[in-house]
Amino acid sequence: MKAFICGFGTIGQSVAKVIAEKQEFFKDRYGETLLVVGALDSRSFATDPNGLDVDVLLERKKQKGTVGEQVYREIKDALDSVDFDILIEVTATDINNGGVGLENIKYALKHDKDVVTANKGPLALRYKELMTLADEHNRYLLFEGTVGGAMPIINLNKYDLAGQKIKSIRGIFNGTCNYILTKMDSGQPFEQALKEAQQQGYAEADPTNDVEGYDSACKVVILANSIFGRNVTFKDVDITGITTINSDAIALAKSNDMVIRLIGEVSATKLEVAPRLIPRGHPLSLPGTLNTAEIVTEYAGPITVSGIGAGGIETASAILSDLIDIMDERIGD
After folding, report:
1. Rounded mean pLDDT of 292-314?
2. Residue 84, number of CB atoms within 10 A of its CB
3. What is the mean pLDDT of residues 222-247?
4. Is residue 164 located within the same domain as residue 222?
5. Does residue 92 register a pLDDT over 80?
6. What confidence tier does 210 reach under pLDDT thresholds 50, 70, 90?
7. For residues 100-134, b (16+ Cβ closer than 10 Å) or e, as one string?
8. CA 4 from chain center: how many Å?
9. Structural domain tally of the chain?
10. What is the structure's pLDDT at 201?
């Protein structure tokens, strides 16, 4: 099978590395490999119908800042330049209108390509439209990497908990906020904790999407639609970020043996992101940058999962699971 990687930043490069490293796995499992026949960044693209050399791509990106020598006016021109089976869409997230990621996913589905994405924006804004489009063209649109990075949650509910009613999910879905709140637990003011998060690379220069709760809101929308069968968008989420939390609130929580965490909550009726008081020692009191989720099930009770919520190789691990899912269906094992 042939894949086109759309977006060649940290995640796209990590996906390319993982695919290259797993060639023997693919060959053993399917009798064929998964070739990267196209790769695209914001300025250039490279293609080879016989498969690109990933090491060459990565070295060129490192040395010249571009993935290829060819330039494009519109992404669809690059996508049309080589035949492929799966689009791996990992361009930057745009939570305002879905950005180029939305158009890329729609274009691929309309042209009978399966899609794997870690791009939250399109699914948080146009989930129903995209899934309907995938169904109309008998294509897969998989997105494990959009929620919790390496933390398995969508496929866990889809496969391992199949047949059970999921009553609710609540969790820490943004590692940046959790890092900041953890630092505030030890006495740092918000501004200092945020600055340290930026210095460590956990927060962007503009941290709005994280600290205002918008990133977490995208993720609870995806969970609401994919697991609870709802038809909601980012605009339906009741969102409160962490910017108003001060040292007095932290101290009050501490005096009651509690911590404050930014919690996303989703059920058949709830869709919310807000700071919550969590007892120390509870699974949702987790410190640091990890993501965690508590899934309340019909028969198994509460199940807690956690994992690294961001990062190139971690998100690539989620994308790999989706790629294998598609290859299992398209090729068979």
Report:
1. 92
2. 23
3. 96
4. yes
5. yes
6. very high
7. bbbbbbbbbbeeebbbbbbbbbbbbbbbeebeebb
8. 18
9. 2
10. 83
Shared-domain flag, residues 135 and 31: yes
Per-residue pLDDT, averaged over 212-222, amounts to 97
What pLDDT score does 309 carry? 81
Shared domain check, 117 and 187: no
Give every CB contact of residue 56 below 8 A, 6+ residues apart in sequence.
Answer: none
Query: Is position 165 annotated as part of the catalytic site?
Result: no
Contact (CB, 8 A) for 114 and 139: yes
Q: Kindly tell me if the per-residue pLDDT of 327 is higher than 80.
A: yes
What pLDDT shows up at residue 308? 86
**Do 140 and 262 belong together in one domain?**
no
Domain around 33 = 2-149+313-330
Give the pair of three-digit tokens for residue 165.
Answer: 């009613």
Is residue 131 domain-shared with residue 44, that is, in the same domain? yes
Can you give the CATH number for the domain in which 52 is found? Answer: 3.40.50.720
CA of 68: how far to CAs of 48, 186, 308, in Å?
11, 47, 31
Per-residue pLDDT, 204: 86
The position carrying tokens 């016989």 is 50
Sign of CA dihedral 213, 218, 222, 224: positive
DSSP for residue 160:
I
Looking at the structure, tell me whether residues 279 and 317 fall in a common domain. Answer: no
CATH number at residue 236: 3.30.360.10
What does the DSSP assignment read for 230-298? ----GGG-EE--STT--HHHHHHHHHTTEEEEEEEEEESS-EEEEEEEEETTSGGG--TTEEEEEEEES
In tens, the pLDDT along 161-184 reads: 989 999 999 999 999 999 999 999
**Same-domain status, 171 and 245:** yes
Q: CA 15, 20, 25 angle in degrees (round to 5)?
A: 105
Classify the C-alpha dihedral 187-189-194-195 as positive or negative.
negative
Helix axes 23-30, 312-330, angle to 10 degrees: 20
Which of 158, 195, 219, 254 is catalytic? The answer is 219
By three-state DSSP, how is residue 201 classified? coil
Q: What is the pLDDT of residue 332?
A: 73
Same domain, 325 and 232: no
